[in-house]
Each structure stands twice: as C-alpha cells, then as structure tokens.
Amino acid sequence: MGLQGKVALVTGAAQGIGRAIALRLAREGAAVAIEDRVANDRARETFAQVQATGARACLIEGDIGKLEADRQVLAQAVAQLGRVDILVNNAGVERRAGFLDVTEADYDLVLNVNLKGVFFLTQAFARHVRERGDGGRIVNISSVHEELPFPHFASYCASKGGVKMLMRDLSVELAPLGIAINNIAPGAIETPINAHLMNDPALMAALMKNIPLKRLGTPEEVAGAVAFLCSDDAGYMTGSTLFIDGGLLWNYAEQ
C-alpha cells in the first residue's frame, strides 16, 4: 500500500490513534505533517518517531476549532512539505454530562473541534487540491457514535453524526476534484482517552459483554485502515464508513 511521494497532514497526532496514523503513513513512504493544538512534549515525541522512520516531517500547532487556524495549519503544511495529498481529520474531544446539564462552553468545544474543524480544514484542503488539479484523499476519524447512541455524551454523538453526513455530502461535491473522502469509525480502542476505562475492572467487564471479539482495538489497527483508504487499493472508495469495533455496533446494549 505504498504512499511514496505523498504528503499527509494528520491532526491531533500527539498521541493515541493520531500518533499511530502518523507513524503508519510514514512507514508507507509518506511525508507527514504532525498537527496538535500546541507543540507539546507528546507531539514532539510523535515528530521524533516519524523522523526515525526516515520520513520527512514537520510539526504544526493550531486550534482547529477556529477557522483561521484551520487555514493556517494547511498553509504551514504546504509551506514546509511542498503540498498536501492526504488529510486525516483525527483530532477530537468529548465531554461527559447528562443532557440537562450540558453547558454551552462544553457544547461549543466539542462541536468546534469535532465538526467545525473538520468542515473548514477540509475546505482549505479541497481548495489546495483544486489549485493543484491532481486529486487527494480525506479520512475522517469518526466513531461508532456516528450511529450508536451514547448517553451522557450528546454533544459528542451530534458532532460525529454531523461528520457522517458531511462526509457523505462531500463524497459527491468533491468528486469532480478527484478527492475521495471516507470515515473510519472506531469502537473501544486502547488510547489515553480510555485510560479510566482500562483501569476499572468492572467497567471493562461490562464493556466486554458488548464486544463479540472480547478485546479492545489498538491504535495500529485503526492506522492500518487509514493506510488502506489512502492507498491505490481504495481508489474507488468514497462516501463510506469503515467500522473498526470488534462487532460492538451490532451487539451493543446499555447496561
């Protein structure tokens, strides 16, 4: 699934799934722009690991929940690596609260990062591709919660449902530019965002009842699917969601 000569921009790449994606694309031959909200130690570690593969790389900071930052992130990636062929919209946040207790601040944070950021960074990328005229790939890291209700996370579900329909619409609108766009919807993955879950045996036992494969997924398994969607093997795929969830979506029951 070689990506030699391609340049990828991966948002939220400081840790977890984002780091695994950056490393996998680098190992497939792509140069990688590593984006995170701030250039923290975790982001610098991802940068070092990507460089260690021999790939060209750069580190970019920006709050993708803000329109001007989205445009600047794309512009910086192009300035440092020459172009961007692949956009991976991975950055995401969640806030737990019962629906009656959700604050406007938390709602705005989740929707701005998870949906507004995807919308306007994708717009900046599509304009860049239009100027070049040679197509591109977009992969959104969505969630099983683009389909599956998740009580106490209404804003998160709304954002991921929005990403689902945005992807479907853009698969039609961006096809004339030679851009293919797809979602990956992970289930329960071994990442820092799930640390509380992995450290609670009771929560893990309840979750395992809902996962037919009886284990959490790994960031590397998500990254492998991203590499596939960015490769020539997936050249005719657009407008689809790949679920990577061990069977969770079709076996879930609220306890």
Give a written overview of the molecule:
The protein is an alpha/beta fold. The chain has eight helices and seven strands. The protein has one domain: 3-Layer(aba) Sandwich (Rossmann fold). Strands 3-2-1-4-5-6-7 form a seven-stranded parallel β-sheet, with helices on both faces. The protein is globular. Helix 1 links the parallel strand 1 and strand 2.
The gist of it:
The protein is α/β, with parallel strands linked by helices and about 260 residues long. The protein contains 8 helices and 7 strands.
Record keyword descriptors for this entry.
255 residues, Rossmann fold, alpha/beta, globular, single chain
Contiguous helical run count: 8
CATH level 1 class label: Alpha Beta
User: How would you write the strand order of the largest sheet?
Assistant: 3-2-1-4-5-6-7
Under CATH, the topology is which?
Answer: Rossmann fold
Oligomer: single chain
The assigned CATH architecture is: 3-Layer(aba) Sandwich
Order of helices and strands: EHEHEHEHEHEHHHE
Distance between the termini: 41 Å
Query: How would you characterize the largest beta sheet?
Result: 7 strands, parallel
